[in-house]
Amino acid sequence: MWTSEGLHPADGSDFSAWLCATHRDHGDFTALLVLVSIDGTKVTPAASTFLNIIGSEIGWADMLGLLAGSGRRWDGACFFAQVESDGPLDNGAARARLRQLEQRLSEDRLVLNEGAFFGRPGRRMEAEEVPGTTH
Questions:
Q1: pLDDT digit string, tens, across residues 13-29
Q2: Of 14, 19, 27, 39, which one has the fewest beta carbons inside 10 Å?
Q3: What is the CB-side half-sphere exposure of residue 87 using CA atoms within 13 A?
Q4: For 123, phi and psi rounded to 5 degrees?
């Protein structure tokens, strides 16, 4: 799954490149994860959770398998790396940050651009403001 250099994932997805670079630069970390459904210009949060990322061996196909377990329909997955000097957050801190993120997203969907936002194929996405819409 990984190239011989261990720097770039062999699956070629933007997700795997992001994960590999983030882990290389910061070590183990917690990622806040928000799944969204997209219907035309409407982006709606579908589910959220947090993951402790230990290592960078998971590829996009593996992540898709994990996300399928949510049981939710989704079109985009946004990961917000919580990088701390002592590694992943404890569960209480991760939950608190996730709730704060959910509140911010309920007020402004463009907050998605602060994270690493990917579509189902594992390619980067960006939320754009659409005149005349509230989210």
A1: 999 999 999 999 999 99
A2: 39
A3: 7
A4: -95, 150
